[in-house]
Amino acid sequence: MSESLQHVHKGLEGVIADTTSVSLIDGDAGRLYYRGYAVEELARKRFAEVMHLVVFGTLPDADRLQEVEDYLWIAGRLPPELAASLRQIARHGEHPMATLQAITTLLALEPPAVSLGRSPQEEEALIVAARIPAAIATIYAALQDHPEHPYPASRRYGERYLQLLHGRQPSPIEVSVFESAQILQLDHGFNASTFTARVVTSTLAPATSALSAAMGALYGPLHGAADQQALEMALEVGQPERAREFVAQCLASGRKVMGMGHREYRVVDPRSRMIRALAQQVAHRPEHIQLLDVLSAVDEAFIEQTREKRRTLRANLEFYKGVVYLALGIPKEFFTASFAAARVFGWIAHVMEQRQDNRIIRPTAHYVGPAPRSMTQ
Ligand SMILES: CC(C)(COP(=O)(O)OP(=O)(O)OC[C@H]1O[C@@H](n2cnc3c(N)ncnc32)[C@H](O)[C@@H]1OP(=O)(O)O)[C@@H](O)C(=O)NCCC(=O)NCCS
User: Fold this and answer.
1) Which of 94, 110, 299, 377 is 20 to 30 A (C-alpha) from 259?
2) What are the start and end residues of each CATH 1.10.580.10 domain in the chain?
3) Residue bearing the CA closest to ligand 1, atom 14
4) Taking the chain (377 residues) in consecutive chunks of 10 residues, what is each chunk's mean pLDDT?
C-alpha cells in the first residue's frame, strides 16, 4: 500500500473529528453517558427530563419540566393546513421515513405562540422536533385511510405519542417502557446521522436542513433502519430452532445479521441489554414472545459463530428494539421514524454545539483516477 493510501481512514474509523460534551461512549467498558450521567440511571426518568438534559445540558427542576412539557404539547400540534398537505403526500404510500424526511424542513411553518427562549434557528428546530410525533401519526392515519385521532390532552411525551397513534389511553407500563426506549435513542456520539447534521450545520445551512439530512442518514439499514430489518429477519427465521443454520448461512454468504455489530463498542452495547429487558416486560402476546425467542436464539448463535472474528460482535440497540415497539402497537414500517422522534433532540444538541465553535467540515480525498492528461495528444 502506498504511503498516502495508508492515511485513508475508510469509514472515518478512529478519526476524532471534533469535541462534544453531549454524550460519551466508552466502547471498551460498554458504557454510555449523556452529559456525564449513565443511561442506566437516566432511563428511569421522564423523557422530557432527559431530552432537556441532552439539548440544554442540565436536568430541569419541576417548574422547568412543566414548561418544557407544556411547550412540547403546544408546539407539537400540527397546524391544519400543514397536516392536510402531509396527509396528501403520505397517501402516495412511500416509506414513512421518506415522507418524514421530505416534510422535515417545512414542519416549523406557522410557528406556535410559545418559545423556549432560543435563537430563531434553534426555535425552528425545536418546533420540528415537537411536531414529529403528530407528523408520524398523520402519516400512519393516511396510510391506514382513517382520520387522525383527536390531539391528546396529556402533556407527557410518551402518553401523547402512543395516544396520537392509537387513539386510546396507553397503560402506565406502556408509557414508561416507551419513554425508556426513547431515552436510550436520544444521542450516541458522532453516529452517521448526527455527523450528517453537523456537516450540514458547518456550512451554515438552516438547522431544519441539518435535521432533514440527518433523517436521510438514519433511514439507511446500516444505521437507523436496522431496527425494521432486524425484526423482518426474525420473522424470516420464524423458529428458534432455525437460528443456528440461518446465522451460518449469513456468515458464509457475507450477508449481515441486522442489529449485530457496532463501530464503537468492543464489548456489549449497554442499550441492547436494557432494550431486551424492556422487551421482556411488554412481550405478552404469543407472537411477540416467539419473536423474542427467535432473536435470543440468533443472538446466541451469532456470538458462538463469530468468536474467531478480529472484532467482538454483539447485539446493538436495534436488535431487540422491534419487539418493544411491536408490543406497543408501533408497526415495523414506523420503527425508524419513531427512532427519529427521539434522536432529533440529539441532532439539535449537536447542531447547537457545532454552531458555537464552527469550522466547515471538509475532509480531503486521496485521488486514484487517471494521471493528469490532455485530449489533444
Ligand atoms: C454497525 C456496523 C455498520 C459497523 O460497521 P463497521 O464498524 O464498519 O464494522 P466492520 O465492517 O469493520 O466489521 C468488522 C467485521 O465484522 C463483520 N460484521 C460486522 N457486523 C456484522 C453483522 N451484523 N453481521 C455479520 N458480520 C458482521 C464484518 O463483515 C467484518 O468482518 P471481517 O473482519 O471478516 O471483514 C456493522 O456492524 C453492521 O453493518 N451491522 C449491521 C447493521 C446494524 O445493525 N446497524 C445498526 C448499528 S447501531
Assistant:
1) 94
2) 21-220+333-356
3) 311
4) 75 96 97 98 98 98 97 97 97 98 97 93 96 98 96 97 98 98 98 98 98 98 98 98 98 97 94 98 98 98 94 95 98 98 98 98 96 91
pLDDT for the residue numbered 239: 98
For residue 164, the CA-to-ligand 1 centroid distance in Å is 36
Q: What angle, 0 to 180 degrees and rounded to 10, lies between the N-to-C axes of helices 317-327 and 226-237?
A: 80
Q: Give domain 226-327's CATH superfamily.
A: Cytochrome P450-Terp, domain 2 (1.10.230.10)
Residue 252 alpha carbon to ligand 1 centre in Å: 14
Q: Decide: 189 in ligand 1 pocket, CB within 6 A.
A: no
Residues identified as active-site: 262, 318
Q: What mean pLDDT, rounded, does the chain reach?
A: 96
Superfamily of domain 21-220+333-356: Citrate Synthase, domain 1 (1.10.580.10)
Give long-range contacts, CB 8 A cutoff, 24+ apart: 239-244.
239/294, 240/293, 240/294, 240/296, 240/297, 241/297, 243/294, 243/297, 243/298, 243/300, 243/301, 244/297, 244/301, 244/305
Confidence at residue 3, expressed as pLDDT on a 0 to 100 scale: 58
Question: Given the CA of residue 260, which atom of ligand 1 is nearest to it?
Answer: 23
Give the cell for residue 327.
Answer: 408490543
Region(s) of the chain under CATH 1.10.230.10? 226-327
At 124 the pLDDT is 96
For 25, what's the count of Cα atoms within 13 Å in the CB-facing half-sphere? Answer: 20
Q: Is 270 in the pocket of ligand 1 (CB under 6 A)?
A: no
Nearest CA to ligand 1 atom 18: 261
Is the CB of 344 within 6 Å of ligand 1? no
